[in-house]
Every structure is written in C-alpha cells, then in structure tokens.
Amino acid sequence: MMKYDLKATTSPTTIRKHRFLTGVIIVLLGAFQSCIFEDMEPCVQYDLTLKIVDSNGLQLPSETVDSIHLFLFDKKGYVRMVSTGRSNDFTIGYLKEEALTLIAWGNLKKDSLLVPELSRGQLPEEVIITLRQLEAFAVNPTDLFYARYTVTLGQDEALIGKATSLTHGVETSDLRAAKASVDTLTLSLERIVASLTITGQYMDRRFGTDTAGYHFVVYSPRDALSFMGTLAGDTARYAPATTMNTAGQLVTPAIRVLPTPVDGALTVALFRGDSLLYTTSLDSRGEPLRAVAGKQIDILLDFRYSYVKVSVDVVPWGEVRQDTEL
Predict the structure, then answer these.
(1) What is the CATH number of the domain that holds 60?
(2) Residue 17 domain-assigned?
(3) What distance in Å separates the CA atoms of residue 256 and residue 154, rounded to the nearest whole number?
(4) DSSP at 31
(5) 6-15, 150-159, 269-278, 306-315: segment of lowest average pLDDT
(6) Domain of residue 182, residue span
(7) In sequence order, which ranges of the chain are alpha helices (DSSP H)?
(8) 301: nearest Cα among 267, 274, 273
(9) Domain CATH number, residue 301
C-alpha cells in the first residue's frame, strides 16, 4: 500500500427537439388519491419537461444523459422517486395547497456513487450521495447533472428556496394561481461535477532522469453532495492515470471530480513510487486551485525554473489542450 502523507510537503423557451423518447410519464401520488378519483377542485396538474443544459444554459445533446431520477418532496419531506429512463416529459398530480420540491439527478449511477435509499418524510438536506472508494482512492463520479425546483403558492414567500453559489439548476416557481388546475414547468439540469487535467514537464531538471513510478494524486476538500446540491463529506483523494508522452511530459486524461467549495482548494501532489516529490494548492499567482462545476481546468506544472511554475486554464467542458508550453 502506497503512503500519501502530505506532511512531507516541499512547496505550496423550452426546446423539445432532443426528446429522449416520445410520450409522457404520468406520476400520480397514491397518498393523494382524491386528485385521481374524487373531487379535482383541490388538485393541480403539472406538465413537466426536463432539459439538459451546459453551464451557459445551452441545451446539450440527448445522449449526454442516459437516465434521470426525479425525487418529490413536500413540506413533510420525501414523498417518492420516479426513474425516467430516457423520457423527459411528465405529468404530476398534487394538492394545490402543498408546496412541492422537485429534485432531479441525471446520470445518478451506483457504480461510482453511494446513493442511499430514501425514507418517507426524510428532508433533502439529510440525503447525502458519497463517492465510492477503490482501495485508498475515490472513484471518479459519473457525468452528474442536477436541478432543484420549489413550487409554491405564489403568496407564500416563506416557502421560497434560495440558491447558493454551490447549487446548479436551482429555481423557485410561483406558478400557481388560486384556481389554477394546470401548470407547466421546465427543469433545466446542469452539470454539477468538474473536470481536470494535469501536465508535468521538465521533472528531470529537479528530480533526475528516473521517470519510473511517477504519478499524481489530487486531494479535494469534499467527497459527497447533498440533495440540496451542496458539497458535503470529507476529503476525496483521486489517482488519475498518468502516461509519459513523446515530449517527456507526464500527462493525465481529463477526469471528473466534485467541485471545490468557495473557501477550499485542490491539492495536487507528484509522487515517485511512495515518495512525495512536490505538492501545491496554489498557482503561481497565489490563487487556490479550484475545480468549477461544468468547467474543465487544465493544470500545468513546469519544473524548469528555480521555482515551480503552476499555470491554470479554465476551459469549456471536454476541450483538448493543444498549445502546451515547451
């Protein structure tokens, strides 16, 4: 088992063109059968469409997400979950006077995430999704998307939710008129994970010509997300695959990670075997290394100088670096 002790640190509009399937999924909540079989006056119907968008609000191709899970909460907590497969249209029947929170996850997969079974009445802030572990390291999360909408009676300001800088696809809809029987909602799911690459160059000028066993470890402040879309948990350690390219650079592929909290930073460490050679949480301008949801960060470590030059580029998702400095 390798040792990774950082105490040895040496330096610091609804668009419907891309429907997944035709048809509508009808969600009828059994606890409120009066909305189905009896007096419809106290009930409201929501025609709900789900969209997958990028960090700029532009709709993404349908194949970006292959499953959506929609969780319904009322003022008492969790009501039920609907797994949509690839359908993105719903009709939901519910009581008019009830505030309703809809939480949607795209690509919520248990191969990389520990997803708990929810209990009736459980509050969304109590539900935590955690990264799975493989040996000593976190499994890279799936390409995870998220939205949270709270639907309220328009006059009930106390029920309006507030978005934070760590939540994505979060809105409050005050769509219900006093006698409305049908409302139309569009939930825009945004990517809630980040992506990063690391490149190291000129390591031979500082650490010698032995390149065997070089690898990076990335330390992130959090390893979990709550159903409110906020970061939770403890430190995550990622071990991206590394290769030495023909230019003599140590490179990683783009890996998905959870975003960095506003008051935190990533730590990037370079190892040779079990030996820690270098670590930093700052770029050369003194700014913390941060992974941003929906964006890719490219980190370049240049060891040719008397100091280590740490450069960071924030680029659109999936962009391939073409102009590495040599």
Answers:
(1) 2.60.40
(2) no
(3) 39
(4) G
(5) 6-15
(6) 25-191
(7) 34-37, 204-207
(8) 267
(9) 2.60.40.2630
